[in-house]
Amino acid sequence: MRRVAAALVHYPVLDRGRQVVTTAITNLDLHDIARSAHTYGLSDYFIIHPIAAQRELAQRVQDHWTAGSGARRIPDRSPALGSLRIVSALEDAISALGEPEVWVTSAQADKESLGFADARVRLESEGPPVLIVFGTGWGLAPAVLERAAFQLDPVRSPRADGYNHLSVRAAAAIIFDRLLAPR
Amino acid sequence: MRRVAAALVHYPVLDRGRQVVTTAITNLDLHDIARSAHTYGLSDYFIIHPIAAQRELAQRVQDHWTAGSGARRIPDRSPALGSLRIVSALEDAISALGEPEVWVTSAQADKESLGFADARVRLESEGPPVLIVFGTGWGLAPAVLERAAFQLDPVRSPRADGYNHLSVRAAAAIIFDRLLAPR
Fold first, then answer.
1. Residue of B nearest to A30 (CA)
2. pLDDT digits over B98-151, tens only?
3. Contact call for residues B157 and A157 (beta carbons, < 8 A)
4. Which residue of A has its CA nearest to B174?
5. 0.95 cut: is pTM over it?
6. Which among A35, A41, A171 has the least Cβ separation from residue B159?
7. Which of B79, B165, B177 faces A39 most closely, judged by CB atoms?
8. DSSP state letters, A37-61
9. Given A76, A129, B4, B49, which is the most exposed site by the fewest CB atoms within 10 A?
10. Cβ <8 Å between A158 and B180
């Protein structure tokens, strides 16, 4: 089994008009994805933000839940929030893991995307760590998608009209479950 | 395919000490679970709260995203938030659906719980609507669990230490995916 980590990118991501923007950190993106990542055995959950004040906000949230009063009130939260790694750029997450294989996620289909069954086989074989990268806003910018070893299949809707508007928190939970749930 | 709906219960649920309590509505429980439910084709997402002021809060959130400025800013959000049904008690959700089969969810294993593969077969066969019930806080009170036709298998962690602390938003997304994703 390979080491698996996740990253949530706040820059460079797209807005509704497909312009490259920086998004603000959302508190529940820290909590929910940390809890899902830790439950599914991921080693690290990187928060990528280029602005120092935003990284400090994330750090205060982490401190509250790993060492402050939050840790005393809900001790179950500590191990999950302890897996947060707050860094400036995706390169920092890549360096921290050595030479990971970067897998990006997108709600848009790509003709060469990696299916979840094949992805499970890859995770179970020997190899470098895998870094699964999620985008905030309207998804990862092309510059991030292009540097990935693989793009995972999108999570598809069963609806006839194809409506698909999952939160990144929900998409991350579903993707961890598809890749890492016990079978 | 049977009609499937979901309900999020704020009373009666358990607190950390396994006392029966009423929890407060969390904004992202409305958004994230509505978005996941609508993406996976559920017909309705019931918010169950016994306190009128809390129901009014949920109603204001729904109005903002289905008719107010939120609907204009992010139109994709409207169909999801439009599936919200804000009611006082689980009985109201049951009445609204006719005579649904009630399926409860829990992070705790139950020796007679329904596996996800069997659950998919049940959903694909003919039958009454299915109402999937989630609890806030530390989970549904025994009074709710006892009245269910089925309790779904818990979402299990692959970790050796069994750490499992998913948010209800993540658990709902995973359960909809396991039951309803295209195969």
1. B167
2. 999 999 999 988 878 999 999 999 999 999 999 999 999 999 999 999 989 999
3. no
4. A174
5. yes
6. A41
7. B165
8. HHHTT-S-EEEE-S-HHHHHHHHHH
9. A76
10. yes
